[in-house]
Specification:
about 90 residues, mainly alpha, Methane Monooxygenase Hydroxylase, Chain G, domain 1, 3 helices, about 85% helix
Amino acid sequence: MANTKSARKAARQIARRTVINKSRRTRVRSAVRKVEEAISAGDRGAALAAMAEAEPAIIRAAQSGIVHRNAARRKVSRLTHRIAKLGQ
């Protein structure tokens, strides 16, 4: 348990940020899942529509530090390549 006033405040702040970060991480995972489901179904139109929503969510998560910047870029790139393969 935190003993000093500043440590107690830090614990409160961490708890508050944890809730926010969890919700943002969930939003990203849901968006990515929609894209992956559309890709696995072979529906290019739905995949493109889902990707249009997922990409900004992934990038926003990277900007706020929820996922690493490079990991976000890699995820977007890989999903984009998988969608492009559907067109062939």
